[in-house]
């Protein structure tokens, strides 16, 4: 396979399809470069004295790891001067970060979870960066949190980087899903998959099964069906995987199929779910749909949800079409 770099891919996509305006191309290249910097920091681990707690809390009330804070700063410093963004929003920041007046403002909004899977950082399990790109709808320099509150179907691009055995960047610009692998010797992102597709059927589900007694009935029923195996209503045996890093679980599903569930939980009934809509569920739902899968909150398409708050949470069911449809049928039967 001829080696195609990220830059060449973006240039050729623009030449052939014309759907990557210069500011969006710069945005993707800058985020990809920032992910390389994060990968280096993550890879150092204890050698860089970068493990452990930052002794601070984020807007979610979660204790921040040093690498959470560093990754957030890397993405801000990489993006604020380029003239492609109006503002950024991050899981690690209470409010939006508007591009300072000393820099030109661009037409895009960047939302991200700088380092997803923090609980895995100190135990050397794959973690990642998730990002979502929206167009700034209003005109002029003013930008506010309201500009970010767009449904996921408005995304111009989405992607994630997995810091795992390989460092991989998965990206969609609305025309399929591509995968780049970091060549550490040259520092280049090299195209290694040009059309990721999720198999419609699967035998693998991903859920944190320790929460089973707290799930709503439809989710309990679905998992019970899977556990009943070939003698049960699904007439096939299932396998379970749960990494505890959404990027790692979603990457497995994009690579070989599967269904991922993080459902509503009766312990915090006022919360629709644990995962965040704007910078976890929406980008992953865009990628999964572009790869032929489905993504719902159990009842409705995630990309149709109109957000009301920047850090709002949502239940997530995503992956192989047949399985997401089964979970949705069970929710609809409950109504
Ligand atoms: P639990 C990581 O903290 C995260 O936000 C996702 O990446 C992951 O899928 C989920 O939470 C894991 O949650 O409750 O199993 O630790």
How would you describe what is shown here?
- With 335 residues, the protein is α+β, with helices and mostly antiparallel strands.
- It folds into 2 domains: 6-193, Fructose-1,6-Bisphosphatase, subunit A, domain 1 (Fructose-1,6-Bisphosphatase, Chain A, domain 1), CATH 3.30.540; 204-334, D-Maltodextrin-Binding Protein, domain 2 (3-Layer(aba) Sandwich), CATH 3.40.190.80.
- It contains 8 helices and 17 strands.
- The protein has helices spanning 6-17, 22-44, 66-79, 145-148, 217-228, 246-256, 277-290, 321-334, and strands spanning 53-57, 63-65, 85-90, 97-98, 108-116, 127-135, 157-163, 167-172, 177-183, 188-193, 204-206, 239-240, 259-262, 275-276, 294-296, 313-314, 316-319.
- The strands form 4 sheets. An 8-stranded mixed β-sheet has the order 4-3-5-6-7-8-9-10, sandwiched between helices.
- Strand 7 (157-163) and strand 8 form a beta hairpin.
- The model has no long low-confidence stretch (mean pLDDT 95).
- Bound molecules: 6-O-phosphono-alpha-D-fructofuranose.
Shape: globular
Q: Spans with pLDDT under 50 lasting ≥5 residues?
A: none
Kindly report the name of the CATH homologous superfamily of the largest domain.
Fructose-1,6-Bisphosphatase, subunit A, domain 1
Bound molecules: 6-O-phosphono-alpha-D-fructofuranose
Distance between the termini: 51 Å
Kindly state the number of beta strands. Answer: 17
Percentage of residues assigned to helices? 25-40%
In the CATH hierarchy, what is the architecture of the largest domain at level 2?
A: 2-Layer Sandwich
Please report the number of helical segments.
8
The fold-level CATH name of the largest domain is: Fructose-1,6-Bisphosphatase, Chain A, domain 1
